[in-house]
User: Fold this.
Amino acid sequence: MAFSFNQKEVGKRIRDERLKNKLTIEKLCELLDVSPSFIGLVERGTSGISLEKLCRLSEIFHVSTDYLIKGTATEMKPAENSALDALNAYLYNSTEEEILFILSLVKFIKPRVEIKSKDN
Assistant:
């Protein structure tokens, strides 16, 4: 079966992923360095998006570019020991003020945390 590109479906998947990731249009615009009107056009399927921005969206949403374009690929699986990836994904949805607060908490807590190895 031949692939048929459908810009409206690409836009719908982008919108669905934005909502699933609880990103406002404004936050997504900040992450992509584009205007809100551009995102609106892309989500409605009336404007295309560059490969560079499409790749950035796949990173932000943790999905493959194939999924965004075709809707057929599965979501990318985080690598093993993905605690850092999970934290990074969480921080994408945070304001700079929240990130700075979280950082101050980490700096306070880290020296006080004692992690026991599984071997003990």
About this structure: Helices lie at 7-20, 25-32, 36-44, 51-61, 65-70, 83-92, 96-109. The chain has a mean pLDDT of 83. The radius of gyration is 18 Å. The longest helix spans residues 7-20.
